[in-house]
Design brief:
Length: about 500
């Protein structure tokens, strides 16, 4: 009987019960747990017949308890058989089952919600890509033709015409800036904006930022001031992003400062905290306390409504806030309505490299071996399906002394390349019949064009577009709208590099 008693003690610890019967089928041992399950004392149960004990298990169901009985016979012990009792609270089981169903339902809902968010994000990216392409394509023609006319390629330009062309260019550049702000903000919010940290000369950064707003300041007779006294010669940051933040802050200050006012860029350094603060101060209209919490939110404008005096989307300061966080710092504002504002950009003096990949401007140079031949050095093949852009590029390049062959799609581009053996190919990407990426790959498979410079000239400006073009075999990625002077410079550089034995690969 010792083995059964030991088992009973162990089962008591686990909350299970045991009743042992002798050869006459009478209870000779009842554990404490079994007594609790059956609702009797151990003394009452000992001596009961087996069937009587089993009948007690039926009564516990009225208390919401289910009893599982296991009969173990032919024991090598004084006891001839035992009943193992395990009580399960039915209500608890039902609650657990209900909880499991609710958890499964919530999991299913979350899974569906995540899938919907992924679809929405994908649709948003597709919409932004399409919007960017459809806006950049006509902008390229508008700005390109404007630039060509300003240079007098279509005849002399009178002063009134020159002023009108300047207005057209300014409006086009403003629209392009809006497009870029939308795309930049979407990249930042999606975590797709890379940060490349390197030593940056502070004075050069400040001066370059001021140059971007100097023309507008001159028009409004605004006094631009720069003071970098006491600041370190250099800091470690991403120069492109830091400049973008400063230019946004300076542009905002100039825009909201009345004619004859002042905008000042200076700073302070806290070596102990390893921080530098660059400050943009203006004598503009200021910001009311009620509007201060709104200014860094996307699409918020403090002078909204039909009577607003200043144009803009309300994206600039939202982008500034996000970019400053990417740089490891933050942006803060102090303002008095009617007197002016001070925006402070706090940056770490140094930080580790946030990304190992090179920026567009610092892309690695990939050597290409030049191939001797009879290729005409001034023949350009242009693959472009937009008629206005065709006329713009062809007219400008011909005026610069190039011979231009035109293709409307990728298939025609391959055929034209075989016919004219161009010195360089300008390849649009989104075209009918055959897209530009496919055409580039096909051309690279042909030994005759394995080393011909190919410039991807496209309105595609979303994350990954540059990489897809370079992976396909393009030497350079240029985003529409492109300045025609920049385009001709890129063409000359690519042709010269090929003739000299190497070609750069990158983006502009």
């Amino acid at each position: 009987m010792s083995a059964v008693r030991a088992g009973a003690h162990l089962l008591d610890l686990l909350g299970d019960g045991i009743v042992a019967f002798d050869a006459s089928r009478r209870a000779m041992l009842c554990s404490d747990a079994a007594a609790r399950i059956l609702g009797r004392s151990s003394a009452e149960i000992v001596g009961m017949e087996r069937d009587e004990v089993l009948s007690l298990t039926l009564g516990v169901e009225a208390r919401g308890i289910s009893v599982k009985v296991q009969d173990v016979s032919n024991l090598q012990d004084e006891a001839q058989s035992v009943l193992l009792l395990r009580a399960v609270d039915v209500r608890l089981m039902a609650e657990r089952s209900s909880l499991a169903e609710r958890v499964e339902e919530r999991t299913r809902e979350l899974r569906n919600a995540n899938a919907e968010l992924e679809r929405a994000s994908r649709h948003k990216d597709e919409f932004l890509a399409a919007m960017s392409h459809e806006l950049r394509t006509p902008l390229n023609a508008i700005l390109g033709l404007t630039e060509a006319m300003q240079e007098g390629l279509f005849g002399p330009v009178t002063d009134p015409q020159g002023r009108s062309l300047a207005d057209i260019e300014s409006s086009g550049r403003h629209l392009l800036a809006v497009i870029n702000d939308i795309l930049d903000l979407s990249k930042v919010m999606a975590g797709k904006r890379e940060v490349l940290t390197a030593p940056v000369m502070l004075a050069s950064l400040a001066d370059a930022s001021l140059r971007m707003v100097r023309q507008l300041a001159l028009k409004k007779r605004i006094n631009l001031q720069l003071d970098v006294t006491g600041l370190p010669d250099q800091i470690e940051t991403d120069e492109r992003l830091a400049k973008q933040v400063l230019v946004n802050l300076l542009s905002n200050a100039v825009k909201f400062t009345s004619d004859g006012g002042m905008v000042r860029l200076d700073g302070a350094v806290d070596v102990e905290k390893g921080k530098i603060t660059l400050r943009v101060t203006d004598t503009g209209i200021g910001i009311s306390p009620a509007n201060l919490p709104r200014i860094f939110k996307p699409f918020e404008q403090i002078d909204g409504g039909l009577a607003r005096r200043h144009a803009g989307t309300g994206l600039g300061l939202a982008l500034v806030s996000r970019l400053s966080e990417l740089l490891g710092g933050g942006v803060f504002v102090e303002s008095t309505e009617g007197e002016g504002s001070r925006f402070s950009l706090a940056l770490p003096l140094s930080r580790g490299t946030a990304a190992d990949a090179p920026s567009d401007a610092e892309a690695p140079v990939a050597p290409r071996v030049s191939v001797p031949g009879t290729r005409p050095s001034r023949t350009i093949l242009l693959a472009e399906d937009n008629e206005a852009n065709q006329r713009t590029f062809v007219g400008y390049l011909q005026a610069k002394g190039y011979t231009v062959a035109v293709a409307w799609n990728g298939e025609e581009a391959i055929a034209q390349a075989q016919a004219v053996n161009p010195a360089l190919i300008l390849m649009d990407i989104q075209m009918p019949k055959m897209d530009g990426l496919t055409a580039i790959r096909r051309l690279r498979e042909d030994p005759r064009f394995a080393h011909t410079p190919i410039v991807a000239l496209t309105a595609l400006a979303m994350p990954g577009d540059r990489e897809r073009c370079l992976d396909a075999g393009a030497n350079l990625h240029l985003t529409k709208p492109v300045r025609l002077r920049d385009l001709t410079s890129a063409i000359e550089e690519q042709i010269k590099a090929t003739d000299g034995g190497s070609t750069g690969t990158g983006s502009a």
